[in-house]
Design goal:
single chain; mainly alpha; Four Helix Bundle (Hemerythrin (Met), subunit A); 8 helices
């Protein structure tokens, strides 16, 4: 009878330890780390748009330069090249929209860390986490500015290649459109520089947070 009681007590004790283990679970800092890793995974599609976009922009520039070397006697060729350029602009639009969707998904995932940050007990660690959240939110805002300027520029590019297919196009109209495009791409360049800078700041803030939180994280070097 005593042996049966001992076994029952032992089983209950094991159950208590198991429940305690489940109740403890990962720390807020560990949950933040796991969420940030998911953010990286979500932004993979964003990263995959970069090289194709550069190649499309390069090819479009080649077509644009070729069009400018042609005269009205080669109007048929101008039309052909303009249509090809329009196709490329449409591909760029698809790529930038894919990029935008990836960033929106990233933001949705990132916002999950707010509840974890509020649970951090050590003030110095919480300050690092708050700084991380702040710079990432600035990064998202910066990207929206970049996306807005880029899509605006795409609209002007489309208009330009449509204008090239008009035999009645005047030099003044062409110059006005090109100036408009150049002004818009200046905004794109500025917005892109700001976004890249904030991305670097975010990556640095992430490293600082991991160190302050005592998380042993191995970082891969960029190729």
């Amino acid at each position: 009878m005593k042996n049966k009681t001992f076994k029952l007590s032992f089983v209950l004790l094991c159950m208590i330890f198991l429940l305690m283990g489940c109740m403890n679970g990962p720390s807020p800092e560990e949950q933040i780390y796991e969420t940030l890793e998911k953010v990286v995974a979500v932004e993979k599609d964003f990263e995959e748009q970069q090289d194709p976009l550069v190649e499309l922009e390069k090819r479009e520039k080649e077509l644009y330069d070729e069009i400018l070397t042609l005269g009205m006697k080669e109007f048929d060729q101008i039309v052909t090249l303009s249509k090809e350029a329009l196709d490329i602009v449409s591909e760029r639009e698809t790529r930038i929209n894919n990029e935008h969707e990836s960033i929106k998904d990233s933001k949705k995932e990132f916002q999950k860390i707010d509840s974890f940050v509020s649970e951090i007990k050590e003030e110095s660690v919480k300050e690092e986490a708050d700084a991380l959240v702040s710079v990432m939110n600035q990064r998202y805002e910066s990207y929206e500015e970049l996306y807005t300027s880029y899509t605006e520029a795409i609209g002007y590019d489309k208009k330009l290649y449509e204008m090239f297919q008009n035999e009645e196009l005047t030099l003044e109209e062409l110059e006005q459109q090109i100036n408009l495009i150049n002004e818009t791409y200046e905004k794109v360049v500025a917005a892109n520089e700001s976004f890249n800078k904030l991305t670097d700041q975010y990556n640095n803030a992430k490293v600082s947070f991991y160190k302050k939180a005592g998380l042993e994280v191995v970082f891969k070097e960029e190729e």
